[in-house]
Request: fold
Amino acid sequence: MTAVGDREPVNILLVDDQPGKLLSYEAILSDAGESLICAGSGREALEKLLEHEIALVLMDVSMPDLDGFELARLIREHPRFERTAIIFVSAIHFTDFDRMRGYAAGAVDYVSVPVVPEILKAKVGVFVELFRKRKELEQLTAGLERRVAERTAELEVAAAAQADLMCRLREADRRKDEFLAVLAHELRNPLAPLLHAVEILRTAERGGDLSWCREVIGRQVDQLRRLVDDLMDVSRVTQGKLALREELVDLAEVVTEAVEISRPLLDHRAHRLTVGVPVGPLWVSGDRVRLTQVLANLLNNAAKFQEEGGHVEISVARVGTEWVVAVQDRGVGIEPDKLPVVFDLFSQVESTLDRSHGGLGIGLALVQRIVEMHGGSVRADSGGRGQGSQFTVRLNRAEPRAARKSPTVQRDPVKRAGPPRRVLLVDDNRDASESLAMLLTTTGHEVATAGDGPRAIEILGQYEPDMILLDIGLPGMDGYEVCRRIRREGLSSASIIAMTGFGQDRDRELAKAAGFDAHLVKPVAIGRLLSILDALPERPAVGAEAAPPSA
Reply:
């Protein structure tokens, strides 16, 4: 048989022991377009069922050796045919009891003899169509299950990848925090002796050159310390959440300080620097340190990205209501297609970067964000490779009455307000230790020093300090263990102050848990340290005793 339309024919099994009846069934159903399979007995019918997928069985009830009731039960007992439609054809066994018996055996309908062709075709058509709908539903369900399984597998793979990514991000974040903590620690260590030296210089009461020197050192130490503090919160920097300390700033002084910062690099590369700044105050409202950072960054880039013996120009001009600062070099230049991304975070424009000086690609991004936070703009221009570059910063002019310039703070030499104290200073950084010891000694305090934990514990056997300044990052026995041992063994009743380059919240918690009374981050402001010493409980005054032991 051929299919009707686009439908595939289904198999209809005709079962009767009389060939004439089989021929009549075939004649009635031939125009239905289905595949008709004939069986002359119940056993032959079972064989056909096993060979083909049967949509409907049309069978005679009264057959020798295996009647319709028994054949229907056998069909229904097989899992493969439990939903196959069965129509009984019978001239007898047509009472209600017979019908109940047939339905119990698995029949779904009856056709009486003589067969009315229209009735037979209608009933067969209904069950064939139900079979087709069931197959379509099964195929649809199987397809959905397959797609669900595939999608589930994809989601499981994606979830596993997401979990792995989150794990790696957490690990990267942890490593970033550790890196920043260590970096800040390493940056703060050299800041401490620098700050101490500045404070000692302030007590020297010497000539103008020395005064200029200490002010320059002090200003740069302050800027370094502030930049290190910003480094500890990278998310705030990258998201443009830096807090500006606004005041009325003379842009001419900002240019001078930026040149001062960049001068070592300019001199090292033998560049000629031209500075063009109008006479008189050039007022802007902003953060002096941040604006200095912007111009110093641009000057450093101009110095790095041109051959030695080059020329760098920085100029300021008034244009309408703005001050326009231009930093120009005659270096490697920027390709036109790279100009739109030169301020992107982590951007490394290959044509402009000597990889030995390229950095991390954050400098210009910070320049743009800081300038925009001041309500200004910055742009880059270049004629292309080898044509040099110019970076132009525009800032709104400010009138003197619009803001009040912060007065220059004259730092007086630090002085002790309370009685002299005994201090045990434990630090393996010799410069930091000696400079702080000298500074404390110049203010009238007595200082013993130790370079490691065992030496500090040894000194405590012969020296009772009022305060122990204890570095955390000591070799061998770290500061936490030294503090715990002093507290555990009752080696001293002195206040123990952690003095470290590690300044995160976790570091403070660890210090508190170890028994420290306070946690100071290097470089320690001498004024704060003296205030802590002044606030200590009274002890007998330091008398004429033997010199305090040292490392």
The longest strand covers residues 311-319.
